[in-house]
Design brief:
By secondary structure, the chain is an alpha+beta fold. It has a single domain, classed as GMP Synthetase, Chain A, domain 3. It is 29% helix and 17% strand. It contains three helices and three strands. It has helices at residues 11-20, 65-79, 102-108; strands at residues 39-45, 50-55, 84-89. The protein has a three-stranded mixed sheet with strand order 1-2-3, covered by helices on one side. The radius of gyration is 14 Å and the shape is globular.
C-alpha cells in the first residue's frame, strides 16, 4: 500500500490511519482490510480535517460492502477527533489475490 514520503507533510498521519484501518475486519473472512489489500489510498486535507479513503471490495457482489464502507468511515472518524471521512468505493484497479499482503495470505492459510 502506501509508503512513507518525507516530502508529504501528511505522510506520517496517512501511515497512522493505515494502521488504524487494520481494525476494520472483513466480516466474512475475518481478516483486516489492509492485509486483504482493499485500501487503495488515503488522502488528507489537514487544514480542513477531511480524509478520503479509496477502497475496493473483492467483488462488486460482496454482500458486506456497505458494512465495510461504513466501518471504514466510523473507524477514521472515531479515532481521529474532528476528522470527516469520505469513503470512495472504486473498481479500478480490479482487486485480485495478488493484492493480499503476505500476512493476509498467512492468515488465510494461502
Amino acid at each position: 500500500m502506501a509508503s512513507f514520503d518525507i516530502t508529504d507533510p501528511n505522510s506520517f498521519l496517512k501511515e497512522q490511519m493505515t494502521e488504524t484501518l487494520r481494525l476494520v475486519m472483513d466480516p466474512e473472512l475475518h481478516i483486516n482490510i489492509i492485509d486483504l489489500g482493499l485500501v487503495y489510498g488515503i488522502e488528507i486535507e489537514a487544514p480542513e480535517k477531511r480524509v478520503t479513503v479509496e477502497i475496493t471490495l473483492s467483488s462488486s457482489y460482496c454482500p458486506m460492502g456497505e458494512s465495510i464502507v461504513s466501518a471504514v468511515k466510523n473507524c477514521i472518524e472515531g479515532h481521529y477527533e474532528g476528522y470527516e471521512a469520505t469513503v470512495n468505493l472504486v473498481w479500478e484497479p480490479v482487486w485480485s489475490y495478488d493484492c493480499i499482503t503476505d500476512q493476509g495470505k498467512r492468515l488465510l492459510g494461502l
